[in-house]
Amino acid sequence: MLTLVARRIVRLLVVLAGVSLVTFAILHVSGDPVSLMMPEAPEADRAVLRQSMGFNDALAVQFGRFVWNLARGDFGHSFFHREPALPLVLARMPTTLLLTVLAMGLSLLIAVPIGILSAVRRNSVFDHGATFVVFLGTSMPVFWTGIMLILLFAVQLRVLPVSGWESWAALVLPALTLATFSTPLLLRIVRSSMLDVINLDYVRTARAKGVSEWLVICHHALVNAALPLVTVAGLQFGLALSGAIITETVFAVPGVGRLIVGAIRQLDFPIVQAGVFVVALIVVLVNFAVDMLYIYLNPQIRVR
Question: Considering the entire predicted model, what is its pTM?
Answer without folding.
Answer: 0.81
